Amino acid sequence: MTISVLLALLGFTFVATVTPGPNNLMLMASGANFGFQRTLPHMMGILIGFSAMIFLVGMGLMALFDAVPVLHTVLKVASVAYLLWLAWKVATAPPPQKADVEGRPLTFLQAAAFQWVNPKAWAMGLSAITLYAPDRSLLSVAIVTAAFAIVCFPAISLWTWVGTVVRRWLSNARRLRVFNVTMALFLVASLYPVLGIGA
């Protein structure tokens, strides 16, 4: 991989990971509801889970999806169902003072597992492998995976930090409820591209 292609890959990974999507919206909501430190396991789950998914997609899962097209439909249904459930959890999150008792952010394992039903993660992974590792060799897939692993954490940290900044303004229970419902609606709206896949 040439330096120019590597720089293009890093640019792609930054834009892909910093733009709004289910992960970033949930991190912003988690930062607002639970703070940065308690959201760290969620963030690490995204980093490790997404990197593992990219690697496995490049090393063979793309071929499986090509061979068994019905898996696209199964993935779409699972993604929609899980994102709707998460949107409900965000919309009904307790106020910060109750959060320590009643609520908790996504765990490392939950966040890592979520990558497998996250439509944006699949779109990013499939696109990155297609564009930057078309031969699907171990080296090229490893480079794409490493690029995402390096760029992902700073990008998602930004969303969590924004959530913690907003948290101060959300000390009012009514404003927090409006914020959580708005984040939940944005999360549901992020399903629009998924529902259009294959149309």
Molecular structure report:
The protein has helices spanning 3-18, 22-34, 36-67, 70-91, 96-102, 108-114, 119-132, 138-169, 173-189, 192-196. With 199 residues, the protein is an all-alpha fold. The longest helix is centred in the N-terminal third of the chain and has 32 residues, at 36-67. 38% of the residues are buried. The mean pLDDT is 81.
Please supply descriptive tags for the structure shown above:
199 residues; mainly alpha; 10 helices
Mean pLDDT: 81
The termini sit apart by 34 Å
Low-confidence stretches: none
User: In one word, what is the shape?
Assistant: globular
Query: What structural class should be given to the helix and strand makeup?
Result: mainly alpha
Most strands sheet: none
Over the alpha carbons, how many angstroms does the gyration radius reach?
Answer: 17 Å
Give the ordered list of helices and strands.
HHHHHHHHHH
Helix percentage range: over 70%
Estimate what percentage of residues fall within beta strands.
Answer: under 5%
The count of helical stretches stands at 10
Tally of DSSP β-strands:
0
State the assembly state of the protein chains: single chain
